[in-house]
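To whoever is covering the structure queue this week,

Two jobs came back overnight. Logging them here so there's a record in the thread.

Job A:
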Amino acid sequence: MSAYNKTDVHPSTFILIGIPGLEAAHIWISIPFCVVYLLALLGNCSLLFIIKTDSSLHEPMYLFLCMLAVADLIVCTTAVPKLLSLFWFQDRKIHFEACLTQVFLIHSCSTMESGFFLAMAFDRYVAICNPLRHSAILTHSVIGGIGVAIVIRGTVLLTPHPFLLRWLPYCRSNIISHTYCEFMALIKIACAETRIRRAYSLIVAFLTGGVDFILIICSYVLILHTVFQLPSKEARLKTLGTCGSHVCVILVSYTPAFFSFLTHRFGHHVAPHVHIFVANIYLLVPPMVNPIIYGVKTKKIRGRFLKIFIFSKTPK
C-alpha cells in the first residue's frame, strides 16, 4: 500500500501550465490579454469616478453599475497579474494559500456580478412597468440593502469552496492545467472522492447564476409585455432602448460563463485549450466591455466622459 507524507498530499505550491498546447504562443497571447486588462482597469475606474462625481448619475441603474464595476475589477485583478507573470517570466508556481484565495475571490465575485445583473434587471422592470413608483421603491437605502445582500450571498455560498479544496489530498500531481486556480481544475487533480464537492459546486452555481438568469428572463418577459402595450412604435422603441445596454452586458458576460461552466462538467470532448481560452475570455472581456457599452449607449456617461477628456486636453 502506497504511503504519502503530508507534503505529498498537501503540496506547498501548485504549478500552473497556462493554456495547454499553446505554450509556444503564450508571449503573443499575453499582448492582447494585457491590453484588454489595462482597458478594463481604465474603463471601470473612469466609470466609478464619473458616477461618483456626478450627482445626476446617482440613480439605481448607475449605482448597481458601480457595484458591478468593483466586482469586475476584483475578478480580473485577482487572476490577470499572475497570468501575465506566467506568460512573460515563466512564473508557474503559486502557493497553496494564494491558489485557494484565487478560487474564493474569482468564484464569489463572479457570483456577485450575476446578482448585480439581476438587480439591474429589477431596476429596468420597475422603471418600465411601474414608473410612477420607481423612485419610491428603489431608494438609496433599498439599493444599499440589495447590494449588501448580493455580497453576503456570494460570500456565504462560496466560502466553503476553499475549505472543501484544502481538505482534499493531492497525491497525484500538483500541476494545474490552467492559467489560474479554479475550483474544478483543482478537483480534477485530487486523489479522493469528490462527488459531494462537485454536487455542492453545481448546486451553488444553479442557486446563483442559474436562478439569477431565470429571473432576468422573467423580468424581461414582463417588460416586453408592458412595452408592446404602448400605443406607438416610437414609444416602444424608446422604452426598449433603455434596456439595450443591460441586455448587451448580460449576453457578453453569460455566454462565456455558461460555456466554461458546461464544458468543465460535461464537455469531455472539448479541447482543453479551447475551454481554458474561453475561461480567460470570461475573466477579461466583460470587465473591459461593460464600461464601453454603458459609455457608448448612455448619453449621460458619454457626455461626462467627453467633458473630462476634452478638459484634460485643453491647454492651460
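Job B:
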Amino acid sequence: MAMNDSVNILNSAYLAVEYIDSLMPDNPLQQPFKNAWNYMLDNYTKFQIATWGSLIVHEASYFLLCVPGFVFQFIPYMQKYKIQPDKPETWEKQWKCFKTLLFNHFFIQLPLICGTYYFTEYFNIPYEWDEMPRWYVLVAQCFGCAVIEDAWHYFLHRLLHHKRIYKYIHKVHHEFVSPFGMQAEYAHPLETLILGTGFFIGIVVFCNHVILLWAWVICRLMETIDVHSGYDVPLNPLHLVPFYAGARFHDFHHMNFIGNYASTFTWWDRIFGTDSQFIAYQEKEKKQKLVTKKAN
C-alpha cells in the first residue's frame, strides 16, 4: 500500500511538472542545440563522442568553472567573502596544483573515460536526439546521482581520514588548508579512484541517455569546485538546493581536518554528529561578531 501511494505521488508530480512545462514558452536555444547534437552524431562515431566528447566536456567544464574563483583573488572587493582571508592563494601552490591535475586528468581519469563507450554499448544507452530525456527528468536524475555520490563520499571519505591510512592517501588533498576551486580534484591517484567510484554508481542506476553522463559531470564539477572555492559568495544559486553544504561547510573540513565529510549535502554529517565541531565553530563566530558590534 505504501509503495503504491509513493508511486502515485511520483506519477502525480511528474504529470504536474509535465503540464507546467507544456505552458512554458519554447526554449530559443533548443533548436541550435538540436542542430549541433545531430551534426555531432552525423560526423563522429559513438566511440569518439563517448571518449573525446566526454574528455572535452570534463576539461572545459572544470577549468571554466575555476575561472571565477581564480579571478576573485585579484579583486579587493571580493576578499570580504573569502572564508580564510589570512591564507591567500599563491602562484606556487596554484602551479603545483595545476601540474598534479594534468597528471590525474590524463593518466588516471582519461583511461576511465575510455571505458564510457563500452559502458554505453553494453547497456544499450542511446545517443539519438529523439530519445533524449526532458530537462526536468535530467534534473531529477542528476539530483539522484548527487544523493548516491554524497552517501558514497561520506563513508569512504571518512574512512580515508582513519589514522592508519590518512597519511598514505588523503593527506595529499589536505596539503591546502585553505582550498581554492582548482584544488577540487587535487588528490592522490588512489583517492581519485576510490572517491570517484561514487560518481559512476548513479550513472549505472539512472543512465538512459548519453546526455546524462555529461549533465552529471557538469553538475558534479559545479558543486565540488564551489565547495572548494574558498569564497562564500551571496546569492549563490546552488544554495537553493535543499540541504546543500556549500563552501563554508567544506572549507571548515580543510581548516579543521575533522568532520564535515559529505561532499554535497549536510544530512549524513548531521545524522552521525560529525558536524558538531562545525556547529560549535559557527556559534563561536556569531558570538565574536556580536561582541565586536557592541564594542563599536
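Note for Job B: The longest helix spans residues 46-72.

Please reply-all if you pick these up so we don't duplicate work.
Q.
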